[in-house]
Amino acid sequence: MPAGRADGPRVSVRGAGNGRVCPAAFLRRAVRATLARAAPAVLGDIAVVLTGDRKIRELNRTFRGIDRATDVLSFDIGDGLEHDEPLGDIVISVETARRQAHEYGAPLRTELARLVVHGTLHLCGYDHREPREAARMHGMTRRLVRELTGA
Known about the structure:
This protein is of the alpha/beta class. It has a single domain (2-149), classed as 3-Layer(aba) Sandwich (Collagenase (Catalytic Domain)). The protein is built from five helices and five strands; from the N terminus they run ββαβαββααα. It has helices at 24-38, 53-64, 94-104, 108-123, 131-149, and strands spanning 2-3, 10-15, 45-51, 72-76, 86-93. A five-stranded mixed sheet has the order 1-2-3-5-4, with helices on both faces.
């Protein structure tokens, strides 16, 4: 269900049992907090889609040529500088997020926050191909996740 204010982006969250995995309001807050830091001019629409490994593998194969599941994919659609104009979609595999949360010894909510922040930063033009860019992106991710979750 979409939610937003007249002065901010509209964020919709779909999939994974309508809030049973993680409250949609928390995921929307994570997107908005990231945008406030990384792209405060964005007013448009963002969709967060929670899915499984099979679907994200299919998307990864189709759009990136990589035939394996991944944790998060971001699809930029527009610049989102106007209301009702899309910025993009963030797709997260809840199955992969659960495995990673277990590996990191973190709650699933914390891992989902990390993935939402990471995906939103990609929509804002951040990347991690070069070491300097990676350090900037990962540093911002850590700070935002800490603010959102206390972890």
